[in-house]
Amino acid sequence: MDVVEEHDIQDKPTKKKTKKQKKQPKPPHENGNDNMIEKTEPEHVDAPAEWSFPPTFSVSEIKNKQRRHLMFMKLKQEKRKQKVAMKKKKKKERDALGDKAPPKEVPKTIENQRVYDETTVNPEDEEVAFDEGTDEFSAYFNRLTNPKVLITTSDRPRGRTVRFCNQLATVIPDAHVYYRRGLALKKVIPQCIARGFTYLMVINEDRKVPNGMVLCHLPDGPTAHFKVSSVRLRKEMKRRGKDPTEHSPEVILNNFTTRLGHSMGRLFAALFPHDPQFVGRQVATFHNQRDFIFFRFHRYIFKNEKRVGIQELGPRFTLKLRSLQKGTFDSKFGEYEWVLKRHENDVCRRRFNL
Amino acid sequence: MADKSQVCSVWVGSETGILKGVSLSKKQAFNFCEMSCLSRDQEVCILGWGDQHETEVLVGSVNGTVKTFSTEKGIFTETRQCGESTQGRFTGLAVTDSALITCVETGLLRVWKEGSTDTVEINAGTNVCRMRQNPSQRNQVATGGKENGLKVWDLERPETPIFTSKNVRNDWLDLRVPEWVRDMAFIPDSDKIVTCTGHHQVRVYDPASPQRRPVLEAHFGEYPLTALSLPANQDSVVVGNTHGELAILDLRKGLVRGCLKGLAGGVRGLQCHPSLPLVASCGLDRFLRVHSLEDRSLQHKVYLKSRLNCVLLSSKDLELSSSAITGDVEEVKEEGGEVDEVWDTMEMIKDQAKKRATEEEEAVVTGVEKTTKKRKVVK
Questions:
Q1: How distant is the Cα of A94 from the closest Cα of chain B, in angstroms?
Q2: Does the pTM exceed 0.90?
Q3: CA–CA dist A234, B201 (Å, integer)
Q4: Cα separation, B151 vs B140, whole angstroms
Q5: Which of A148, A165, B22, B36 is the most exposed place for a label (fewest CB within 10 A)?
């Protein structure tokens, strides 16, 4: 018996679970010949192993990697079995109760477990309303200016970025794409202001793929720097509709709850003209989830009062805010209203800023 | 209103023109303004104490008015027009026996005497970023700005400054080093002045020495340093930059002693407590934070809904609760007594930990405070 036990513990490929006696695991010693014999023995018993270890024992204390792996696998299988057994039991109880069963519990997701952010805007807050009413976007929201966007890239853009800019220009009404001839942004900005532009959008490119965006609100407004990922051009979209028309789209801003989120929402809203043309049936969506902003552009059609069909047109991309700077673009000397500090933000997985 | 303002130990001025008082012991913030007549041209640029006993707060706004707020009565008692908005924002406000000293961005430094309308005027150059008063010799002020070096003025002799600094030598490419003084402070018990610049340098000048160039120069970070404050005891300085990085620098060698974490936006106002090792910071991320200088941990974090421009700390003990909460204070003292015999030397730290524990039970707790509590217990 003893010999079998020891071999059991030593042997990695042969998972022998023959007669387990309740004893401490003995220090192993090699018995090379016996190993070969053990392999041919039948596979293991279904009764789970019950050996008693000292309470402080953990799988990670075994120094031998293969033995440790074996023990860990056994542990996992144990756990999985227990989990399946629990589920079966619960299901049985549920069926037994029938109608009187308690309602199904909502599974925990990271969005459910989100830590309450104290900067969440309360709609009736006067101070925040005043702050927003008199900030840099107030000219747009009071209908004093119409948006006019200049889209450009970093110097010498490659095919994908160029196509992305052109598609963005079709999505945003009154957008103009200009080639960046290696010009400094600080010199471009006064010229834009003189020509009546309200936004400057610079798509940064790295290795032929767009990966960043600087969005600067022009007269004196905030500059947001984003990381752009998952860019899908029109060609790559499945089941897409025809090209977007010149009609102004509606804008949907989802889930921008905190104060910073509100600023971002206003930033995106001010890109589009005030009045959407419902004739065009186009809608641009900025959906915020877990601090990532997903941009989608759809055309919708109401089949009847309750059912809508949508077709995705246009490019799709994801944005993540890296910094929000007060004033026009000045990365060296400007003052930052919010900066993403990765090591401080990554501490809690359930805390978000937007 | 009066009882609210008497409890407040930290005063903050915001961009929306609201003066906010924060009581850290009660964990509450109060707005002192009239909501109906808010406007952006009342944006608070500068705060200062009106008198030695810290019963009056002077609030300087963009439109050139200086309002006096009484902490005992809880209302604005007086408004003075000290210049127009065309002359630039206030960059410094100070009080000497019955005279008010104001300085604006265009360099006009004026001393307004009580009663009489004429003022003593000094032209401190253009683009002045900051004016500070020497706390030990109240008739000396220092000014500095962009391409405008540090100058120390004596108000009794307003024609020429008593000390003008000289720019450092040309760098290794033989180019002139640009200078941009953002904030300065007088080091107590000596003649020295420490300044922080927009080119991430911290410099110490000594008017007593024959050299007009800085005696010590230190660098921190890559972004402009916007605010500076001297802690109570040691020879160190706390600086903040536009990226929200706060650091404690040692003035003996010019090395960084440590950074204070937590800020996400540019630092606009920074002040160390006169006696306790605490520093209050406010900035563009709309939070007021109080850090402890000893272990660099966050003690308090308050969300104040507008962008904050300046902060003013009162000299009274911030942790001390008011008479309304005597019950908790007694409880704290009892616990401290038990532990006294065993941890004699550690008494101060333990007390603070216990106090923080009771405060947490009272009101909203931030996650950071919880972790600091855990750290103390483990010690």
A1: 39
A2: no
A3: 50
A4: 10
A5: B36
